[in-house]
Write a structure and sequence with these properties.
Layout (H helix, E strand, L loop, with lengths): L1 H10 L12 H20 L8 H35 L3 H58 L1 H22 L12 H46 L5 H23 L4 H13 L7 H22 L18 H6 L5 H33 L8 H29 L1
Helix pairs in contact: 2-3, 2-4, 2-11, 3-4, 3-11, 4-6, 4-7, 4-11, 5-6, 5-9, 6-7, 8-9
Length: 402
Amino acid sequence: MTNNLHTDEQTTPRQLPKKKYPELDRWAVPVLSLISGALLGVATPNLIDANGIGGIVKVGLLAGGASVAAFCVNRIAIDKGTDLAARGYTTAGAASLFSVVFVGTGLFTSTLAGLTLPKVEELRLAEHGQAYVQYIGERNAQATKAGRTLPVVRAINRELPVKAACEIKSSCVSGASSTGYGTVARLLEEMAGRANNVGEQVEAGELVRRTSLKKLNALVGEYQSVLDDSEVQLKDKRGQLQKIDVQIIQLVSELNEAIPVSFLRAYADELSAGFVVAENPTATKRLNTLLGKHGRSLNKVLDTVNARHTPRPVFPREAGVSDTLAYIGHFIPIAMLTAVVEVIFPVCLWVYTLLSLLWGHHVADPTRKNKTSSDTLSEKRTAPKARRSNRHHNRGPAQGEM
């Protein structure tokens, strides 16, 4: 029988004690503090000059100091702040939670800015290039519209010399009885010469427009090629792009001045205003009818040109921390993960620790939750009376015995 009992004890599995794991806040806070410091150490070289031994020392001090600060603040807030808050000390709880959020937000902002700063810089430079493409297209469209005045000016240049010759031969414009080189013929020749000069300027401007546009397209392509070159350091890349930007500015100025819009409008107004032929109203009317027709045609084309220039894109300054926050939408995954490590998890740990403490107090004293402030106040008021009555009650028997 003894052998059977011994056999049963051997076959019965022994229940091992449950393995005790360390409390979450005991290892999570120091581990996350180290991770926060490591992330800040990776991000800091993008925020400050970290070259050489001095730079390495600065990065190490910043990362180490941030780790220690995050650990101390979160540890104290979770250990002390939640306990005081659970005991009813609201100010201590609010202060501890604020400290956790403040330290976490500072680490989150610095880390996210350092991790995304190079990409934000490239995004800003790329946006500048796109803005220039749109600006050049808009200015070229306006210059093209201004160039449409060339057929109108050529029509004026063709018709006025013919009318001048007709006036000299048969006074077909003035309707005068005498022929020859008179006032009307002289005015027609002068306006024909003006039309020829205007036409030459418009033709030269059109050539400048095409040449400038061709060079601008080449510079925009070069700008994009430099921007896409991954072998060039960002600092060197920025310098090259600034040089291209200066060339683009010069060519854009040439493009804006290619077609003399102001000169064309002045010439169109001169045609529309007409002239007065002394003591010959019939000649004045016929001459002004001819010139006014051309002036209105020229003004009609010029009205399609936008005289107000769109502001030229300005080369962006170097990106800073505030600029990275403006582009946070481009880096949502990185921002969310960084926020979880730096802010969300410490806050959640603080809240759940406080809730656990409150539940523990409730289990220890279930009536505590149902007590109102008036009940507590009435207990405080009745407590001295109860103590006094107890003292009188204790004195009574003592006097009787005497």
